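Narrative of activities, Objective 1.

The group set out to show that a structural description can be obtained from nothing but a protein's sequence at a throughput compatible with the screening campaign. Below is one input-output pair from the validation batch, recorded exactly as produced.
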Amino acid sequence: MKTHGIASLTACLCLAAGLMSLSPASAQQALPFERGVKIDVIASKPAAVKGGDFDDKLQRITLRLKFSNLDTRQSYANYTATVSAFGQSAKDRTVTKVLLQESIPLTVEPRKAVEHECKAVKTKFDRTGAIFGYSYDGWIIVVKDSTGKIVQVKSTAPSLEKLPDKVDKLAEGKCYDRKLEPTDDPDDR
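Output recorded for this entry:
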């Protein structure tokens, strides 16, 4: 009987030692950025109707970004977030203009948050009479690690989330089609 008790105790101690040796390894496994960091974006409400003519609309939009690290031990260092804001053409709804293109160096400590306010974007448009300009249409954020690998994409439009590799090639003030290919500005046609 006693040998059985000692054998059980030895087996339990060996099992406990084995589990303890696994704990540091599992703690060192990195939680992927997309699961460890939550991205919140708040776009300010477009300004009320202002401008020259009574029917011209002027919008001023500011994007506020918040990157929250949900992990208690792991930090995320040397990442870059590229944020783009878009405007839809009043003349041709298939054309989008890049109103904002900003890159943000990103390091998020455990259980901390990093906030960033993008520069304000102003846009003017008219959809009646003399049709011109661009109205605010949304945003996309692409986060890359230090090697340039895309680790997270978030957008107001699911179709944009399918094109994250094209975001770096966008230029502020330029026009693109729905597949983010360069196109002519409808206001210049």
